[in-house]
Amino acid sequence: MKHIRSLTLFLSLLAYCSVVFISCQSETEMLMPEENEELSGGETTVFASSTKAFDKSVRNLSNENFDHFFVGNSFFRNPWVSAPASTTARDGLGPLFNAVSCAGCHVNDGRGTPPAPGGVFESMLIRLSIPGQTEHGGPLGDPIYGNQLNNKHILGVKAEGNVALSYVEIAGKFDDGETYSLRKPVYTFKNLGYGAMSPQILFSPRVAPMIPGLGLLQAINETDILAQADPNDINKDGVSGRPNYVWDVVKEKKTLGRFGWKANKPTLKQQVAGAFLGDMGITSPLFPNENCTSGQINCQQAPNGGSPEISAENLDAVTAYNHLVAVPARRNWQDGEVLKGKALFRKIGCMTCHTPKFTTGTLEGFPELSGQVIRPYTDLLLHDMGDGLADNRPDFEATGKEWRTPPLWGIGLVQTVNGHTNFMHDGRARGLQEAILWHGGEGVKAKEAYMRLSKGDRQAVIKFLESL
Fold first, then answer.
1. How many CB atoms lie within 10 A of CB 234?
2. What is the C-alpha to C-alpha distance for residues 278 and 291, in angstroms, rounded to an integer?
């Protein structure tokens, strides 16, 4: 009888494994590390985990781009000064601005953070617009304050104003009874230098994003990005990612957006030139007009640093630098708890938007970035993230509820590099778990699945994210 029972059990297990073989195999594979999984940026990946982990050149930097990287690095880091000045290559700051250098917002090439309540905005800014669109379909700026609030100024020009930040705590509870609290930011404009804003003002706070890996995102084939779009949710999974099409000032037509919190910039060059103008008041060949509105007479009359203030050659160098900052390798990627967290991250649906892997195409001028197997954990598409995260400010084809899926590579080193763990577009989340809990809209199913996990499983998911 004992042998018969054993044989029956064996046959039952055999039948079970036959039925669920694919599922069992899939679960087993997810608990195994992938080959070269630690190389988030493929051959460009650098092995660094110090406070300088985000400011390294790609590991396979070519001879032809060596000088571009280091010249661009210099213009990225060093401060600009107001004109006229003896430093003619770096004068023309302002008249209105938010920072004196790129590194002023992207500290150590890392992530910005909101100020403490009552503090001054340093690595965070406020986008502005009113209902309507420009002739190219972009946001229509406030008649007096334009598209961005500049809280700093040169001598003889008034700053546009400041913003007071405070928070409201929102209590919540996981399914197992553990409690948590989220903080909802509240913004109040103050000390406006040019009178009242439009009564229809729309605004959106943005922290400075990380620099590593941007060139690799530029190198992803457009067809590979669009292949993931499902704007009508045909597969009925509740996720309907879609592309943002934005104005390309070089091509003079709408093209796919892939940079910025709402994918509102088509190329790194336009992103860089736009930041020079909006953040520092530096004109360029792409944006040759000063960042002054018709109601800011003293801004219009201020001296400038030439036309344009950053040359085409130097703009190209800074753009090249932004292409060539490397992604750091993952840590603890073979750890059992990390692998468990990765499997759970997939199981609860996070990878539906945070696409783990791409192979880059050929990017002209950047052989280092071409043909690389990369793991950015983004689809570069827009997703409705619900009312809780909505800024209610459209940006080209992005609605006021939509945000581009942010890449996750390097996220586990933000604490080391920047000394904080403030995440989301406005830094409201005080850690990775709070970032997950803010997901609504298309992300609500994944969030709710996370809330149903045991505490140990939730910790495994966070440990996986910290390994990226």
1. 8
2. 7
